Amino acid sequence: MLYLVSYSLNDKANNMAKLIRFKDKDGTTVYSCPFYPIDSIVVTSTNENPSAKLGGRWELIDKEFKSSADNNTIFFSANSNATTKSCLLIRAGHTLRIRLNFTNKVEITDSGAVIGEFNYNLIGIARTNIGLSSMVGGTDNGNCTFIYDVNHSTGSTFIGDVVGENSLATNSNCFIDFTVPIQKEYMLDSFCDKFYWKRIA
Fold this sequence. Notes:
By secondary structure, this protein is mainly β. The chain is 7% helix and 49% strand. The chain contains three helices and 14 strands. The strands form two sheets. The chain has a twelve-stranded antiparallel β-sheet with strand order 1-4-14-5-7-8-13-10-11-12-9-6, with no helix packed on it. Strands 2-3 form a two-stranded antiparallel ribbon. Strand 2 and strand 3 form a beta hairpin. The longest helix has 7 residues. It is elongated.
């Protein structure tokens, strides 16, 4: 699917109403190439460059995640220090929200421990554009909080700096919950359904 979202001529509504319109094989309205002047912007539902249908040269300037909510343990691979109980993933626009519930299989003190890593390729990203450091997680019963870090390039997750107790006791039910913006360069196309293109030539 392809549709126009920006038009560089004056009086857009009147000009568009007068244009000759065609239908592609799927019944989508397509305007002929001369009516997509330089700086026009279109949105497609796939990553196919619109030059094949509209001519000219087009540059991808943005994209958005397909809105979805999934709860699946495959998003996080725990190591021998933890067991993944659930991992809720919400995608919308340029944003990811993740809530990981896990049980620690070892006692965790202030010296900390790596509990596993997020599987970025299954989440829909190549990496995050910012590192998540000094984030606060906790236990389900509220007796203990801790600081965690998520590596922006590997997804490796470190738990440390336990607050409220001397340590995080073995088999505690824990959670971390965060929301992170993702730049288009790191969003995997197969998880997106809006691609914004600007005509440059």
